[in-house]
Amino acid sequence: MTFEEAFNPIRALKSTFETMNLQPAHLWGGGILLLFVEQIPGIGFQFVQPVGQSLGEGVMGFLFCGTCVAGLGFFLLATWLMSGLFLNLRSVLQTGEPTEGGIFDHQDKFLPLLLTRLLVLICVLILLIPGLIMMGFFVFSSAALVGQFDSPVLAIVVMIFGFILSYAVMIFCASGIMLAESIVIFEDLTPVEAVKRSWSLVGVDRWMFFKFIVVNVIFTFLGIFVFCIGFIATGAIARLATAEAYLQFTSGDELSPAEA
């Protein structure tokens, strides 16, 4: 399957959904669990500041440190789950059956994936700089518009446009390394080699991959409009769609578990 075919977002989301339905306990259960584990640290940090301010600076410092430690623990747990979950996805795609060890069997991929995720995090922070500079420019421009024209509506429009454009630039710049997690799990490469290979593969058609990511993000947030709980389903599907597309692209032949 070509890169364009594999990373067609509609095909990938549909195929991932069908694959997850073949082994719902492993893939749906694992996907939803991974989604929750990855979201919990962010939710925790949102509550630290208001709760800490109401209880005092000493308590706030204690809560912040505790949240950081808990966040690290959840990051490690998410890494463990991701390796087992992605390996199960490959197994179901190839044979229709999960791996013998289930989603908690990382098959010695935990440490390479952990190092890769840390490396990707560092690279993302660097690659986000152009988008952050652009965002700052639009923030100052909006403030200048309010001061010069006394037009808050125009300033709000400029800021919204600027934020959308800035986020698009961030995603486009960071998209080159977003396959590194899948690569290090499915191939025997070092973290540095995985990041380099991801950058090389995405460079084949970066705009196509950018569209793939944007559609996945939109699909994920569409779940919020289904009584909010739909986010659980759409988020789990989108989380696995990248790995599914990568497997289709590198398999040589189209993987079809429904026919296995």
What order do the helices and strands come in, and which of them pair?
Elements: H1 3-6, H2 9-22, H3 24-55, H4 57-95, H5 110-127, H6 129-149, H7 152-174, H8 180-186, H9 191-202, H10 206-222, H11 230-250
Helix pairs in contact: 2-3, 2-11, 3-4, 3-11, 4-5, 4-11, 5-8, 5-9, 6-7, 8-9, 10-11
Mean pLDDT: 84
> How many E-type strands?
0
Strand/helix succession = HHHHHHHHHHH
Query: What coarse outline follows from CA principal-axis ratios?
Result: globular
Mind telling me the C-alpha Rg? Answer: 20 Å
Beta-strand residue fraction? under 5%
- Provide the structure class: mainly alpha
Please give the largest β-sheet: none
N-to-C span: 18 Å
Description:
- The chain is mainly alpha-helical and 260 residues long.
- It has one domain (3-252).
- The chain is 80% helix and 0% strand.
- It has 11 helices and no strands.
- It has helices at residues 3-6, 9-22, 24-55, 57-95, 110-127, 129-149, 152-174, 180-186, 191-202, 206-222, 230-250.
- Helix 4 (57-95) packs across helix 11 and helix 8 packs across helix 9.
- The longest helix has 39 residues, at 57-95.
